[in-house]
Specification:
heterodimer, A: mainly alpha, ABC transporter involved in vitamin B12 uptake, BtuC, two-stranded antiparallel sheet, 1% strand, B: mainly alpha, 14 helices, 2 strands, globular
Chain lengths: 295, 345
């Protein structure tokens, strides 16, 4: 393989890796969005998932247990948010903001308490389990780009497929969608819109928790501000994807490509890294503007 | 019998304040080796002498100004989540201007120009999100956050690159000349005359809010957008203006910090002020006068947390948890029935 092809393969491979947390979180956020709730807490829930997931994985040396802890903690966060919002009739945006603040506070305080540092906490995890047989990853170009990935990365795509199925074909998913379209109609049919809303928030907790965990696993550490805006980027992916799972996945790939490119540019160009770091946000902002519609 | 108990605004504020104070006491009890002295550090030290009191009041000043801006945007249901970037970039713009002005410039001119630069920078950044909302129907929350993320990176770049003070080991701009800093009151604390400006702005807002058509129309835009449009109120203009004012107030808060307590712009300058100002606006419950006690309370949590951090090793991020808990309580409009039952039995 020539040099250029190798570089391109690298960029594309990392694009898929970088898309993993975004895909988990944005498909999770799709549930709450369909139920009529703009969930700005994806960012905080991802942070909670990353911290508790990595802590549990580090403690037990078992990535699967870490994954469960990530889901559990982020779902707990989304239940807290849902309870205050739905049962206590609170403003969704304010509870979402509170979750984001809480996530930053709890992870910093617990990190200091458990690991005696607020800085990077590195964990030794077992090596990632490859999802595909080694032979496939030997295929030139396509192999490293598509078939070198871990089970965790591949499960983000499975998650998207399963979620799409739940949304479109299950009663549960249809009730969530109906709640977003016309909550009154749902309650006149004898179903509880509040229950559908709560369930949608739980799904967004599951997705965000997994997304945060994927971020932690990708660096084998918990880093302060590890999510750094990806929860918001995932939110924009929902809009750019017009609330359709397939297009959301494509949007996640687009944002992941910008992240992958910005990582690559940082190493090889004279553009200052801090400016390059702004690239994914800029791409996201432009997409957000493009996905808006005129009045 | 109603299924739930409605909570009125004063009750919510009391709950939020009470619970966050109780929680901080619990945290202190859990983590500190000497509870008595930790409690004293948290609750009393900020008031214990002129120096601590002045510093504590100085911390409340940017919260009052930025909190007022958030409150004004809330009036029209606009939610500015870009405060961190707006404050940071505006502080940097104001700081750069103050550093470039000739040494002979009258201090008053420096203060005025720096404050103006801060306001205009913040307002421009905020207005962008308002414009996007008005023209493209884009959520102002998401766009203001993203713009802020970009602006923070760009500001970081300038501070660590072209504007870095070569003589300093910190990532910071150069220090302003002492005579360009606002006159201090309660020396040696960092409290300066900007507290007067904060109070004047709050009073001015209360007058505009109660006595003018602008204040009334802003409120209508927030309460019912369609009705406002039907009445011929230029809703789009109010959306843009609300976000611009909110950004401008963050900008002013940032500029006043540069020509006041900070005297320079360090990397990470805004350090959570953008979010704390939202807590202040929420605690104030839409009342201009409420901004003052709300800012004093949030500043108290922050100061108290800084003091325990030094005393007991609890990181100062504990303040984010306290603020989050206060937010939950302030925004909850009712308590479910189970609580009432328990209260009755």
């Amino acid at each position: 393989m020539s040099g250029t092809a190798a570089v391109l393969a690298d960029i594309l491979k990392y694009t898929i890796v970088a898309a993993t947390p975004l895909l988990f979180a944005s498909i999770g956020g799709l549930f709450s969005e369909l139920a009529g709730m703009l969930n700005i807490a994806l960012e905080g829930l991802m942070g909670i998932g990353a911290f508790f997931g990595m802590a549990a994985a580090g403690l037990t040396g078992n990535v699967f247990i870490g994954m469960l802890a990530a889901i559990g903690s982020a779902v707990a966060g989304s239940l807290l948010m849902g309870t205050v919002t739905i049962k206590f009739k609170a403003n969704l945006f304010i509870t979402g903001l509170a979750i984001n603040l809480l996530a930053g506070g709890i992870t910093a305080v617990l990190s200091q308490w458990w690991y005696h540092t607020k800085a990077v906490v590195a964990f030794t995890l077992p090596p990632p389990v490859p999802a595909f047989p080694a032979a496939l990853s030997q295929i030139p170009f396509v192999g490293p780009v598509l078939f070198s990935h871990s089970v965790l990365t591949v499960s983000a795509w499975l998650w998207a497929i399963v979620a799409a199925f739940i949304i479109k074909n299950s009663r549960h998913g249809i009730r969530i969608q109906a709640t977003g379209m016309n909550a009154q109609a749902v309650s006149s049919l004898g179903y509880s819109p509040d229950r559908a809303r709560m369930a949608a928030l739980v799904w967004s907790g599951v997705g965000s928790g997994l997304g945060g965990f994927a971020l932690g696993v990708s660096v084998s550490a918990f880093v302060p501000n590890i999510v750094s805006g990806r929860g918001w980027i995932a939110l924009v992916a929902i809009y750019l994807g017009r609330k359709k799972p397939l297009w959301i996945a494509a949007s996640c790939l687009l944002f992941a490509l910008s992240e992958s490119l910005s990582n690559y540019i940082q190493g090889f160009s004279s553009i200052p890294p801090l400016l390059v770091l702004a690239l994914p946000y800029a791409v996201t902002l432009v997409s957000l503007i493009a996905s808006g519609n005129k009045r | 019998m109603p299924a739930e108990r409605e909570l009125h605004s004063p009750a919510r504020v009391m709950l939020a304040v009470g619970v966050s104070i109780a929680l901080s006491a619990v945290v202190l009890a859990l983590f500190s080796k000497d509870l008595g002295s930790a409690l004293e550090q948290f609750f009393l030290e900020p008031f214990s002498n002129r120096y601590f009191l002045g510093n504590y009041l100085a911390d409340a000043v940017p919260l009052m100004i930025a909190g007022l801006g958030v409150l004004i945007a809330f009036r029209s249901k606009n939610f500015n989540l870009g405060g961190e970037g707006q404050l940071y970039a505006s502080a940097l713009a104001a700081g750069v201007l103050a550093l470039r002005l000739p040494a002979g410039t009258a201090p008053f001119a420096v203060w005025f120009l720096a404050a103006l630069t801060g306001v205009l920078t913040g307002a421009a950044i905020g207005a962008l999100s308002g414009l996007l909302k008005a023209v493209r129907h884009v959520s102002e929350m998401i766009s203001s956050f993203l713009v802020s993320a970009i602006v923070i990176n760009v500001s970081d770049f300038f501070i660590t690159g072209p504007l870095q003070d070569p003589a300093s080991n910190f990532q910071t701009t150069r220090q302003l000349a002492p005579k360009f800093l606002l006159p201090r009151i309660l020396a040696p604390s960092k409290l300066d005359i900007s507290i007067g400006l904060a109070l004047v702005l709050i009073v001015a807002f209360m007058i505009v809010d109660k006595r003018t058509k602008i204040g009334f129309e802003l409120k209508i835009c927030g309460e019912n957008e369609e009705f406002a449009r039907y009445c011929g109120i230029p809703v789009a203009a109010y959306q843009i203006a609300a976000m611009a004012i909110s950004g401008g107030m963050y900008g002013l808060a940032g500029a006043l910090l540069v020509i006041g307590p900070q005297g320079r712009v360090m990397r990470g300058f805004s350090s959570g002020l953008g979010w704390s100002a939202i807590s202040v606006a929420l605690l104030a419950q839409g009342s201009g006068a409420g901004i003052v006690p709300a800012a004093l309370f949030i500043a108290f949590l922050g100061t108290g947390s800084d003091h325990i951090m030094i005393g007991s090793g609890i990181p100062s991020e504990i303040v984010s948890i306290l603020q989050a808990v206060a937010m939950f309580f302030i925004t909850a409009r009712s308590l479910p029935r189970i609580w009432k039952k328990r209260g009755q039995s």
